[in-house]
Write a structure and sequence with these properties.
single chain, 342 residues, six-stranded parallel sheet, 11 helices, 15 strands, globular
Length: 342
């Protein structure tokens, strides 16, 4: 469907949230984007806010093109398709992989599109879903059952990041796993680790509310980080994005164990690491960046863990109250803060 037919206007406009480099949030009237031949136009239904959005707002995030319309965790309905699109059609309900890449470089060909030099994520390098409409390459869109729920479908993106981290850790079956950080990524790591056969799964967060949510999501061993004094773990995921969590996590890895950094730290931040401990205990230290090629797998896994993942969805705000939503997320009373659309 063409934009002229969809909107019956020569130059249709829409409302979109914008963030400027000087930390301002406002709602602007902008042109409705037109889908290229290989793209789709999506009307968002739900959009999550994550730590990346806070970095974009407060500190800057590498690759951000300001002023930016945020929103990279989203689901919605396809309202128009480009002439070359075959995999989705108008009316489909989709979840969207936000990582827009070249598709041809060595990293894309190796199944590591998150490392593509031309990476330009939706909501970071190109306009995101905190708007009435958003475009995306059709190859990034995955049809999901609407019965999954728009809010849960918007969690597929962080789940894909989690699946990449778990794959990076190697075989976790029957291994003792610790997750540091009870945000969305940490909670989904705990849920997915159990789903893939980990032995003991422990999640640590200083916030009692988040520990309670973890238990409701089926992660029984939820503790304060201060309680982790003697225990060691075969696999440690640092999902807090905090210096103290990273340093503590490295101390808690069992000999020959694996430490996976999932949390996003400020660019340029430094932490104290004891190289001798890594050498002596033969530790594997791995970084896990974004979702790689795991979005299709996350669509399937989300069907299996839907009820547990739904527990993580907390406060919701109309999309035009983006500033209130960001403030609520920063207070950390709930796990996943989402934007809603009418």
């Amino acid at each position: 469907m063409s934009l002229d037919k969809l909107f019956d206007a020569a130059k249709p406009t829409m409302q979109a949230v914008r963030i400027t480099q000087d930390h301002r949030i406002f709602v602007a009237e902008v042109a409705v984007p037109e889908a290229a031949d290989d793209e789709i136009l999506v009307r968002p239904c739900a959009c999550g806010i994550c730590g990346t959005d806070l970095h974009i707002l407060h500190h800057g995030f590498p690759g951000t093109v300001y002023p930016v319309t945020p929103g990279h965790e989203f689901s919605g309905h396809v309202v128009a398709v480009g002439r070359a699109v075959k995999n989705v059609k108008e009316g489909d309900f989709v979840a969207v992989d936000p990582n827009v890449t070249c598709g041809t470089c060595r990293w894309c060909r190796a199944g590591r599109p998150n490392l593509c030099p031309a990476l330009s994520p939706i909501g970071v390098g190109r306009p995101g879903a905190a708007a009435e409409y958003v475009t995306a390459p059709a190859r990034n869109a995955f049809v999901v059952k609407e019965s999954l729920g728009a809010d849960v479908a918007a969690l597929i993106e962080p789940l894909a990041c989690v699946l990449h981290a778990i794959e990076s850790a190697g075989d976790i079956r029957d291994r003792d796993v610790l997750v540091l950080g009870g945000g969305t990524m940490g909670q989904l790591l705990g849920i997915a680790a159990g789903h893939f056969g980990a032995g003991r799964v422990t999640i640590a967060d200083p916030a009692a509310d988040k520990r309670d949510i973890a238990r409701r999501a089926g992660i029984a061993d939820a503790v304060d980080p201060g309680e982790l004094t003697e225990a060691t773990f075969d696999v440690v995921f640092e999902a807090a994005g905090a210096r103290r969590a990273l340093e503590q996590g490295l101390r808690l890895v069992e000999k020959t164990g694996t430490f996976v950094q999932v949390g996003v730290h400020d660019a340029g931040a430094l932490v104290g690491v004891e190289p001798f401990a890594i050498y002596e205990r033969e530790l594997r230290v791995i970084g896990s960046n974004s979702l790689a090629d795991k979005f299709p797998a996350a669509v399937d896994v989300m069907t299996d863990i839907r009820d547990r993942a739904a527990v993580l969805i907390g406060e919701t705000f109309p999309v035009w109250n983006f500033d209130d939503a960001v403030a609520a997320m920063a207070r950390g009373r709930s796990v996943k803060t989402q934007l809603t659309f009418r």
